[in-house]
Amino acid sequence: MTSKPETLANLVAEAVDGGDLTFAQLSDRAIDPESGYQPGANLLWKVARQKGIKLNPGLVRAIAAGLRVPPERAAAAAAYEFAGFVATGVEGGTVVHEEGADIPEASKSRAIMASWGEEELQVPYNGSTE
User: Alpha helices, DSSP H only, in 1-130?
Assistant: First the structure.
């Protein structure tokens, strides 16, 4: 029997309900490293209890920081909970897809990521110093 992917609600609930953290303590350390956004304890409670929230990348990164898990793990959990997509690691990155999709060796995904990498390398220099 295969297990279901984790959800953002499960990640937060397990840290608070099964750990040594309160929602206030989680809020204190849940700071998005990119924007500085910090969700409040009430919002984190709503996430854990699967109440209606407005999901955004800053919230997901803040939760990852607060839980001290990789941002990719929190993003994969959010993708599953809110869109039903699962993340599969492949060489060179992660593919997000419908649950149950056959990703045999992910050769197409690897080829697409390789072509994106080649495109990024071919961006011409525009003379800007920024």
Answer: 8-17, 23-29, 41-48, 57-67, 71-83, 107-121
- Taking Cα atoms as reference points, which of 37, 70, 69 lies closest to residue 55? 37
pTM: predicted TM-score of the whole model, two decimal places? 0.75
> Coil, helix or strand for 129?
coil
DSSP-H helix ranges across 30-106: 41-48, 57-67, 71-83
Map tokens 């397990």 to a residue: 14
Tell me the C-alpha distance between 83 and 14, whole Å.
21
Tell me the pLDDT tens digit for each residue of 10-51: 999 999 998 789 999 999 999 999 999 999 999 999 999 999
